[in-house]
Design a protein that fits this description.
With about 160 residues, the protein is an alpha+beta fold. It has 5 helices and 5 strands. The protein has 2 domains: about 60 residues, P-loop containing nucleotide triphosphate hydrolases (Rossmann fold, 3-Layer(aba) Sandwich); about 60 residues, no CATH class. About 30% of the residues lie in helices and about 20% in strands.
Amino acid sequence: MELVKCNNLCKKFDDKQVLNNINLSIPKGKIIGLLGKNGMGKTTLIKLINDLLTPTSGEVLINGEKPGVNSKKIISYLPERTYLDKNMNVSQIITFFNEFYDNFNEEKAIKLLKDLDLDINLKINKMSKGMQEKLQLILVISREAELYILDEPLGGVPR
């Protein structure tokens, strides 16, 4: 069984057809990249897979089921925009993720924070955009998920 399957997936916003009859199968254990120009529907497809948008027609299946409560348990998603509470510090966010996600590996997150020289006591509102994106990436990959979906994972990270 495929981890992700899209059957005749369509998404329309008002009169604009963004996705038209997308058929896609992603087996377990594969790394897939979505490449295309801006505005071609990559983020829309990602949001449909994450159950953040509803298809106009067609279907998305995660492990053979429509996206919902069960899929959210196995998908670790990095959106293109930061979602962190700017008033919290890194340690508080790590604690929150550890309590919220059964599959969050706190030891892995702390090790990655140290490896990338991110201060665990630093408040989010004192971090640069690149530092915030590094933190979000650490949070996402510190979950023991079956599917990792990263939307523009290095958008603001200095190279």
